UniProtKB/TrEMBL annotation:
SnoaL-like domain: residues covered: 4-122
GO MF terms held by the record: dioxygenase activity
Keywords from the UniProt entry: Dioxygenase, Oxidoreductase
Domain of life, source organism: Bacteria
Protein name: 3-phenylpropionate/cinnamic acid dioxygenase small subunit
Organism: Kibdelosporangium banguiense
Annotated InterPro entries: NTF2-like_dom_sf, SnoaL-like
Keyword Oxidoreductase: yes
Organism lineage string: Bacteria, Bacillati, Actinomycetota, Actinomycetes, Pseudonocardiales
């Protein structure tokens, strides 16, 4: 059963991703993701990324097109029978020109020796209201 300490740790984990992205500390992604993470961005027409190095490289390649602010909200955690946690949250990206976009994060969070980490992240773009 998830304890309140587990829930707090997972909330902090999900928030840390944005802080690392926004500060350009992509080499610290191992603090957020498992080494073999699958980062599924197929909803954006791209192949999934595999591993923290690939995630960091993709962020660097995006360069100036990266949002200046990654914000996570509306976090819902559901413990799975295998002990993993499904985390569903909303992401808001603020671009340098002030425009913004919304996504849904669907994460699988696992406990490893270092603590909780995201082993799979699927990002779904929010393009139309009301889930249409």
């Amino acid at each position: 059963m998830l304890t309140s300490d587990d829930r707090t740790a997972i909330h902090d984990l999900l928030a840390m991703h944005g802080h690392l992205c926004d500060s350009g500390e992509l080499d610290r992604f191992n603090e957020v993701f498992t080494d073999d993470v699958t980062y599924d961005i197929t909803d954006f027409g791209q192949e999934p990324l595999h591993g923290v190095a690939a995630c960091a490289a993709a962020g660097r390649a995006l360069g100036e097109a990266n949002p200046v602010g990654h914000h996570v909200t509306n976090i819902v955690l559901t413990e799975q029978a295998d002990g993993h946690v499904h985390a569903r949250s909303k992401g808001i990206g603020i671009r340098a020109d002030g425009s913004c976009a919304s996504v849904t994060y669907e994460d699988t969070v696992v406990r490893v020796a270092e603590g909780w980490r995201i082993s799979r992240r699927t990002i779904l773009a929010r393009r139309r209201p009301l889930g249409l």
